Amino acid sequence: MPKDFMWGGAVAAHQVEGAWQAGGKGVSIADVMRAGAKGVARVVDDAPIDGKIYPNHWGIDFYHTYKEDIKLFAEMGFKCFRTSIAWTRIFPNGDEALPNEEGLKYYDDLFATCKQYGIEPIVTLSHFELPLHLVKEYGGFRSRKVVDAFVKFSQVCFERYHDIVKYWMTFNEINNQAMWSDPHPMLQNSGLLLADDENAEETMFQAAHLEFVASAKAVQLAHIIDPTLKVGSMIAMTPIYPLSAKPKDVMMAERAMRYRYYFGDVQALGEYPAWVDKYWARKGYHVDITDADRAALKAGAVDYVGFSYYNSLTVEYKEDNPLYDYNEATSVVPNPYVPRSDWGWQIDPVGLRYGMNWMASRWHKPLFIVENGYGAYDKVEDGKVHDDYRIDYLRDHVAEMEKAVVEDGIELWGYTPWSGIDIISASTGEMKKRYGLIYVDQDDEGKGSGKRIKKDSFNWYKQVIASNGEDL
Ligand code: BG6
C-alpha cells in the first residue's frame, strides 16, 4: 500500500465509553435504547427505567480505560484511530449557550493519548448519539433548530481540537435511513420518532436534507477555522446487485443504487440528482429546500468520502412494483452465491472493490474505509481467542481493497476495521456480537471482569500493518 497509508481501527463513543452520566454528560438517544437481540429490535424508552438493561450506559468503560486500550492499539501498530465525540458530553442537552468544559477536557486527553503513540485521531461528529432533548423538544432533524445546534457543536469541536484532529466526518452512515420502513435507523441517523399518521419516507427526505445542510455548513466552517482540516461524509456502502441478468432486475438494481446513494451525490457533488425532484413530485412529497440551502450544499461539498463496508444486497423486479420504487423491506432478496454471518449479513469481499470503484467513478473524491468487520460469537479457550473466521473475513476484504488501490488506481487514505476492540453492537445492543481484535471479558448484561485479551486477529493485523499490507 502507499507509504502514508493509514492503518487503524474504529469505534464510536456511545458503543465504548459508558460512563453515561459522568463529567456532566447529558442523555443521548443511545442511553434510552434497551438491549435487543438477533432479530429482536431494541425498545426505545422515553427515559431510562429502573431495572431495564441499557448497554450503552456502560459500553466497555472506555471512558476510564482509554489509556490502556490505546496502548494496545499502538502495540498493533495503529497509525490512526477512529472514534466519535459524544455530543452530550459537550452539549448535554444539545442547545445550551456554552459547552461543557469537562466534556471537552475528556477529548483533549483522549486525543493527546493517541498522539503520544503517533496515532492520528479520525473523528465523527455525530455517530448515532443525538442528545435526547433535541429529539423530544424539536423532533430531531425535522427542525432547523437542530441544524443550528449541530453547526455550533461542530464549530466548538473544530476550534478546540483543530491542532490535533485533522480528519473529521459529519454524520455516520447518513444513508442508513434509506431503510425508512425500519424505525431504528430513522432514530439513530436523524432523531426521528414517527407519529402513526406521518409518512415515514417523506419525513426521511426532509430530515436528511437538513442534515445535508448541517453537514455542508460544518464543512465550510472547518475550512475557515483551519484550511488544513479534511471533512468527509460517512456512507454505508452496501452495493445492490440484480438477482439475474433479466433487464428488469438490472433496472431494479440501478434504481436501488441511486436511491441508497443520492445521499453521497448531495454531499460529494453539492447538489441533488435530477431524479429526486421527479420522484418527490410523483409521490406528492413536499421537502422544504431554500435557495440558501442549495448554495450551502454547493459550497460545503465534502473533502473525501468515508464509508463502511460489511456486505452487499440483492434485489429483483416484482410485478407489483412496475415503477421500480426501492423499499429495502420488500425489494431485497437473498443472494444465493454468497455465505452469511451468524447474524445473516452476506459476506462478499468482492463487493468492497465493486463499491469502491462505483463511488470513485461517480464522486471523484478520495475514499477512506472507516468500518469493515465481522460480528461473530467468540470463545475464550485457555485464555485465548482463536478467531480464524474473523481473520479470513478481514484478509479477503483487505485483498480486494488492495486490488482497488493497486490495480484500479483508487485514492484510498486508510483502513480502520470495525472494531479495534469489542464494543456494544449498535443494532442489537449485544456484547456477544463481537467485532474486536481485542476481546473484552463482559457479557450482554455488563457483567465480567472487563479484562482485555488479544485475539489471534490482533497478531494477524499487527503483521499486516508492519508489512504495509504485503503479508496477509
Ligand atoms: C455500522 C455502525 O452500522 O455498523 C456501527 O456505524 C455498528 O456503529 C456497525 O456497530 C456494526 O453494526 P452492528 O449493528 O452489528 O453493531
From TrEMBL:
Q: Name one Pfam family in it.
A: Glyco_hydro_1
An example GO BP is: carbohydrate catabolic process
Spell out the PROSITE patterns in the cross-references.
GLYCOSYL_HYDROL_F1_2
Output this protein's name.
6-phospho-beta-glucosidase
Family matches, as InterPro entries: GH, GH_1_N_CS, Glyco_hydro_1
Keywords, alphabetical:
Glycosidase, Hydrolase
* Signal peptide, first to last residue: none
Q: What is the lineage of its organism?
A: Bacteria, Bacillati, Bacillota, Bacilli, Lactobacillales
Organism domain of life:
Bacteria
GO cellular component, alphabetical, reads: cytosol
Q: Does the keyword Transferase apply?
A: no
